[in-house]
Amino acid sequence: MTNNRSTTYRSNCTLKMATITSMERINTKFISVIIPTLNEEINVGRLVKFLYRYGWRYVLDVIVVDGGSTDNTVQVAEAAGAVVVTSPKGRALQMNAGAARAAGEVLYFVHADTHVVESFAEDIFEAIQEDYQAGGYRFRFDSDRWVLKINSYFTRFDTLFVRGGDQTLFVTRALFRSLGGFDERYVIMEEYDFLRRMWKSQRNLFKLIPKEVVVSARKYETNSWLSVQLANLVAVLQFKMGRNPQSIAHLYKKMLNYR
Fold it and tell me: Do 31 and 58 form a contact (C-beta atoms < 8 A)?
């Protein structure tokens, strides 16, 4: 037990020193925002402009990683000022490609349909100053349906079961590399898998920021609240049973009118 604690402590110190050393070499701009997209022309321009407007002090670059959009996502992202990278479709593949292209020492992964808080850059800076190496937010839906407020309420608890990519995720480059990035086998639950691996040995490095990002409720426009909860539960149980990620994704999409 003592050896495990000692190993974790040394690992934490190494990651902390790697981040501090890297950040000392750059100016105040140290955040690379990475947005995986597929047919998000409606959302991506708004998001990129927002990130530059409110993150100007700390955001070094905004990278949109497109997985083969057939609409104007790429053109809209470029016009808004993003660096556009193309990648095979798959969120884990796309986010890893964005991380490889990123110049910042902190990577901030954001879904295109998420509305980020205006203080996101200051929040991340403050977390890094407090020696955290990763973190995310609570969320609420862009809907007034009372039943969706149940989901939102539980994201205030710092447990893995209620964490997900919609809540955004920041992580230092050093920690991201030490974990091998996102597991590209996962075509679903890729952020959940990443956090699960991180929390096994680096749980104390994660900060849940007590603010809310706003996420899209579009999945609930074509599915009942109960059917989505059931599909989520089945996916988590399948994940814990070690089922093939492709099988989990296939079953999840079969249970929902998924888009």
Answer: yes
CA dist., res. 214 & res. 116, Å (int): 7
Which residues have CB under 8 Å from 205's CB, separation 6+? 12, 15, 131, 132, 133, 134, 175, 198
- pLDDT, one tens digit per residue, over 77-94 is 999 999 999 999 999 999
Classified as helix, coil or strand, 1 is coil
Say how far apart CA 55 and CA 33 lie, in whole Å. Answer: 10
Compute the chain's Rg from CA coordinates: 18
Return the pLDDT at 27.
53
CA distances from residue 166 to 18, 244, 246 in whole angstroms, order as listed: 28, 23, 20
Tell me what pLDDT residue 202 has.
87
DSSP assignment letter at 173: H
DSSP 74-115: HHHHHHHT-EEEE--S-HHHHHHHHHHH--SSEEEE--TT-B
- The strand ranges marked E within the chain are 31-37, 59-66, 83-86, 106-109, 134-141, 169-172, 206-215
Q: Using CA atoms of 32, 140, 90, 252 in order, give the dihedral in degrees to the nearest 10.
A: 160
